Amino acid sequence: MSAQTVPIHYVHRMLRVAERRGLDVVPLLREAGIPEDVAGHAKARITVGQFGRAARRLLVLTDDELFGLGPRVPRGTFRLIGLSLIHAPDLRTVLGRLADASAVLAGVPRITVTEDGARTTLAADVSALDDPEHLGAEVVATLAHRFSGWLIGRRIALRAVELPYPEPAYALDYYPILGRMPLFGTQRVALTFDSVLLAAPVVRSEADLLAYIDLMPGNFFATRDHGSSTADRVRKILEGGLRGTWPTPDEIAARLAVSVQHLRRMLREEKTSVGRIREELLRDAAITSLARGEEPVEDLARRLGYSEASAFRRAFRRWTGSPPGAYRPTH
Hints:
Blueprint: E1 5-7, H1 9-20, H2 26-32, H3 36-39, E2 45-47, H4 48-62, H5 77-85, H6 91-104, E3 110-116, E4 119-125, H7 135-152, E5 158-163, H8 174-178, E6 183-184, E7 189-194, H9 206-215, H10 219-222, H11 230-238, H12 249-255, H13 260-269, H14 274-292, H15 297-303, H16 309-320
Parallel strand pairs: 5-6
Antiparallel strand pairs: 1-2, 3-4, 4-7, 5-7
């Protein structure tokens, strides 16, 4: 799994879904390997693996592939749909079969696909979901986007994203997942992309599909949407710094074929900077190591370039609101 981390609000919202159904959330956290002290902190982040385990546990507890947010979608429904899609010749056929399946499978949000010249829009009607946490809408959007791209082995650059609820405080977290800032408060979930992708062939097998399903939904977060935003392209370049020397802003700008001033301006428009992205990489690497529990804090600090463990501890508390020890496994 990726060293990317996931904001704790995803878990907070899953816990609210569970609590609304009278479920005990403590075992969910325990089985996901998320310490309760971490789960309770608004600034906390968790690994992709921890998030995936928490989501899979909620799926088991609700016995529903949409977490009990609407008419029941029995476990195994996605596998059934996937086995139909995996043998399609191209993306156009995939989306047509997906729309057909949504029309006959109870509980699955109705999917429509509209091809309008150079642009194609996949829309989902999630109005039947009891979804105040917006988890159902997000699952539908990320599943449609990531699974379609996975089937054709290509990144699907989204030209527009629509989500049917007010803009949340965590809106910027959609950037690394969807590669696009959504338009909020619409009447549907909708993803718009270039129609030329409809001819892309399906390149996956049934064996690939079963392995993919085993990793859901953590694999929606494991791969960032490199290329859609300047921040993601800069992050990809900076990732090499975790294994050696950090690229300078001048070197990053040269690789992107822009001036340093233009690079900084583009990052400001996305509410970030080279320094902030570098800190996010350090934070994610630190959280991933601590969650594994295999590396002493002093060694981790040294590997991440801190001359003193105390400086690393201060930085970690600034990033997450907790000391590094809070992220150690409890079992």
